[in-house]
UniProtKB/TrEMBL annotation:
A Gene Ontology biological process term: mitotic sister chromatid cohesion
Keyword Protein biosynthesis: no
Classification via Pfam families: Acetyltransf_1
GO molecular function: acyltransferase activity, transferring groups other than amino-acyl groups
Annotated N-acetyltransferase domain residues: 10-159
Keywords: Acyltransferase, Transferase
Key word Transferase present: yes
PANTHER family per the UniProt record, alphabetical: N-ALPHA-ACETYLTRANSFERASE, N-ALPHA-ACETYLTRANSFERASE 50
UniProt feature coiled coil, ranges: none
InterPro entries in the record: Acyl_CoA_acyltransferase, GNAT_dom, N-term/lysine_N-AcTrnsfr
Domain of life: Eukaryota
Protein name, entry field: N-acetyltransferase domain-containing protein
């Protein structure tokens, strides 16, 4: 049985130039994709939309989002969102998503949040669908150097 976490057990922290190496290392463990320097530079520019997540002061995950302009309003794209395997199924991912959705809710101009999930990543699909994301559209060849190359586009409408 997994231990129940208190509200204070999970905390968030900003990404900075000084701690960006931690994100690089974390991403090496979490994803089959090697992110280039430009990705990390762009993520740093996102401010509060890119956060580390800690469990009792131990770095266990991170999320990185980008705010995009629309003709009328904005939308948020989840670039990366992950928790180290040993810390999954503790509710940390749910807390991370809650943090993102809280920020989205505080910005009245944001219409939707969306992301791509690799075809075959059933755990991620179940997580996002269980949190109100919808979509079945497969984007072929979304990923260039990993198999499978397809991604499923998921969206969550925030406001009309």
């Amino acid at each position: 049985m997994k231990p129940k976490l208190s509200e204070s057990d999970v905390t968030f922290g900003d990404l900075t130039e000084k701690n960006m190496g931690q994100l690089r290392k974390l991403n090496e463990y979490l994803y089959p994709v090697k992110y280039q320097d430009k990705f990390y530079k762009d993520v740093l520019a996102q401010g509060e939309w890119a956060q580390y997540v800690y469990l009792r002061d131990v770095l266990v995950g991170a999320y990185c989002c980008r705010v995009e302009m629309l003709d009328e309003g904005f939308r948020v794209y989840i670039l990366t969102f992950g928790v180290l395997e040993a810390y999954r199924r503790l509710g940390i991912g749910a807390r991370m998503l809650h943090d993102v959705l809280r920020k989205v809710g505080e910005q009245p101009g944001i219409k939707e949040i969306y992301l791509h999930v690799q075809v075959g990543n059933d755990a991620a699909l179940a997580f996002y669908r269980g949190n109100g994301f919808v979509g079945d559209d497969v984007v072929p060849d979304y990923y260039k150097n990993i198999e499978p190359t397809g991604a499923i586009l998921l969206r969550k409408c925030i406001r009309q």
